[in-house]
Model the fold of this input.
Amino acid sequence: MDSSEIKQLKILAAKARQGAILGTFHAKSGHPGGSLSAADIFTYLYYKEMKVDPKNPKWEDRDRFVLSKGHCCPSLYAVLALKGYFDWDELTRLRHVGAMLQGHPDMKRTPGIDMSSGSLGQGVSAACGMALAGKLDNKDYRVYTVLGDGEVEEGQVWEAAMFAAHNKLDNLVLFVDQNGLQIDGAVEDVAGIEPLDKKFEAFGFEVIKIDGHDFEQIKSALDKARTVKGKPTAILAKTVKGKGVSFMENQVGWHGVAPNKEQYEAATAELEAQIKELEGEC
Done:
């Protein structure tokens, strides 16, 4: 990627973060912290990596995506809106009764959502099923899933990991959004998961460690994953909870609290300033 492509991705990611703040503000609930930490991963997947068609969300040969940490959907919804799956204004109705966008992804209600999720640990199992189906049907689509680092404390994640390796699901890429914080505090204090790379390797994965906010590293990891044969890939992405909004960064309190009007305006202005600076560089 050249510098202009990276700047465009950064602009899109900042807009996705704005969308997450917009949605949680209007909902008066939601999970901004982990939504912001994963925004760069969502942006790269939908704009550079995945084979998708917003005009045909159920296209049989599309790549699949499962947000296993389903509560962090606000920035995913924003990326889908930017990509053209639905109108941006839908974000203002996040979590409202009868709205398209609920607090956890709903595959029956929302274009672009391939799997309903929210019960932590279960999304990766669904992704494994999709990847195995692709193998059995001789399809060349790939399957991507994003988990939280707190989520990998769930035993079902490791059952799915065994399944993925046993079935040689080299069409499966699993991201762990390692922002280091979960609802009850620091991941290392709640239930230490390290050494996470060695654990995934022991379960039969190709493991790649990256900075989850560096688009060149995300690209390099995904390019390498496409060359891996006979086993799934786990990309361990170090991130910052609340990334992009200074007063939210690395603050566990922003795991599941919506911004008030003053905080919404401050966060939106900060992100808008980032966008303007990037646009000025283009």
